[in-house]
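Let us work through a complete example step by step.
Step 1: write down the sequence.
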Amino acid sequence: MENTRTRSTSRVFIARLVGTTVFDPLGDAVGKVHDVVALIALRGEPRAVGLVIEVAGRRRVFLPLSRVTAIEPGAVITTGLVNIRRFEQRHVETLVFGELFDRVVTMRDGTGQVTIRDVAIERDRGMDWKVTRLFVQRAASGPLGLRRGETFMVRPEEVSGLAGSADQQSATALLATLEDLKAADLADVLSDLPLARQLEVAAELSDERLADAVEELSDDDAVALLSGLDASRAADVLDAMQPDDAADLVAELPQIKATELLGLMQPEEAEDVRRLLTYDEYTAGGLMTTEPIILPPEATVAGFLAQARKAEMTPALAAVAFVCRPPLETPTGRYLGMVHFQRALRERPQKMVGSLLDKALDGVHAEDSIGTVTRLLATYNLTALPVVDDADRLLGAVSVDDVLDHLMPDDWREADEAVTDEMIERSANG
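Step 2: predict the structure and record it as tokens.
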């Protein structure tokens, strides 16, 4: 593919432009390119009019291409003037990466349909940016469609369907950019999409990956997404979620829907969720997860480290193991104490965790308030606390990230953006 380095006439391919850092004239990073905004009419040459860039606080703002002085490999240089107002797409605008990539269009020469894999823009003598080339691919051929289709360049006027709806686009290109995102960032991307598009992307994600993202969505977004899924898929996603997060989400659903999904979940997972729903939201019981690392006293350090390495274990919960008498499913046998990950790293792999117990803290009870939990976490510099019953059986554990989720205001993402805006304004005013 052609070089993305641009002067006045060289081509810039959008696939390479997305993710590029945007700099002001002094060399300070402003944000990263998230997409390109184009105006595509049924007739006339398509024009690129601006960039959507992601700035501090994951806010996406519009940067007119008229304020871009250069596009080079790994850098977009601007005049330094960036409007911090959140980008809102107008009905006449098309997001090139988000809406055109993987769109199926028809060749006007009668040779069939092709799929858009990349889009090139060029700056003309009048300093306007035009969509000048489409990098397209024909459908796979051969037995079982194993032979990769031909790829080639065409001009926008050589195809029809470019100005069609986003329904013609599959989720493949979007998913490629989401693959390496952390769950919180994936949730942020999903929340910016229309619900229909969210559901399309969700259909291509594994249950575990979607569950991680749903845990990071706001209550309203999570309920809308889960309600839009097929009931059996929604139940599978709840199964893959942390029990406390699943319980919080089920509590937000209409009663009929909640009952339906609980009935479709795995019995063990559903039982954990039902148990958590009996506790008040702002108590240790309402905050806890029923699936921390639980080990018998004869388990080895090597066994503890193997449990901590599991991908589904959050960093806060991986930092400590809770040692109990059998049974090891919550509610367990008698709780004996906790073993800290850092302490375990200093011991031989064959060492039994029962000899490394920290017994300084008995644990909290399910009815204890979030204030009590917070004070203990802060006092003892812990990432998780055991929750026990009157018989000293382990019911679960409260992690610091769960406490933070409940202490932050409901609109904390917007509040963060407001703080960011204020900091930017103060900086601009000296």
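Step 3: interpret the result. The first strand starts at residue 12 and ends at 13.
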